[in-house]
Write a structure and sequence with these properties.
By secondary structure, the protein is mainly alpha-helical. Helix content is about 55%, strand content about 5%. It is built from 8 helices and 2 strands, in the order αααββααααα. The chain has a two-stranded antiparallel sheet with strand order 1-2. A hairpin with a 4-residue loop joins strand 1 and strand 2. Helix 1 runs antiparallel to helix 2 and helix 6 packs across helix 7. The longest helix has about 35 residues. The termini are far apart.
């Protein structure tokens, strides 16, 4: 009896997690086709659905960081179109701001960011390419689990 209940709970949790992942996947795809400029990313109604899930969606968003699917979202800062993984990175950063130097490995001593763009992590996306997205994703996932995250305040 005890094992049946545990299995049922595990199955329920797995189903719930999968549905959340597929929902965010669908939303990221829609956002990538609807939003024209990265500066407007967080104003999109579908972006707001992800942002409203708050910290619960951070691990799921991180699972999309490596997704190189093209989007129609243009970044003036990067002078190119962003991919789905980069949209996930920006949204994750807007939910909970990243410690950029720790995650990207780049110290921004001059505090230079993209002009008139509130997506601060967007400045680091080209560094992300240099340092590999896998390293970025791994450092981000480690950060999410760390004790330092709970102490870190902006």
């Amino acid at each position: 009896m005890k094992h049946s209940i545990i299995m049922l709970l595990l199955l329920f949790n797995l189903t719930l997690s999968f549905s959340q992942t597929s929902k965010i996947d669908s939303l990221l795809t829609i956002i990538g086709s609807e939003v024209q400029n990265s500066k407007e990313l967080v104003n999109n109604k579908n972006s707001k659905l992800i942002l409203n899930q708050n910290k619960r969606s951070l691990n799921i968003l991180a699972s999309f960081f490596l997704d190189s699917s093209k989007s129609n979202v243009y970044s003036e800062c990067q002078n190119r179109f962003l991919n789905k993984g980069e949209l996930a990175i920006i949204l994750a950063d807007r939910i909970e701001m990243l410690p950029y130097a720790l995650i990207t490995g780049v110290q921004n001593c001059l505090l230079t960011f993209c002009k008139d763009n509130k997506n601060l992590v967007e400045y680091y996306l080209s560094w992300n390419e240099i340092n590999t997205k896998v390293n970025f994703q791994n450092r981000y996932l480690e950060w999410l689990k760390s004790k330092g995250r709970k102490k870190w305040r902006i």
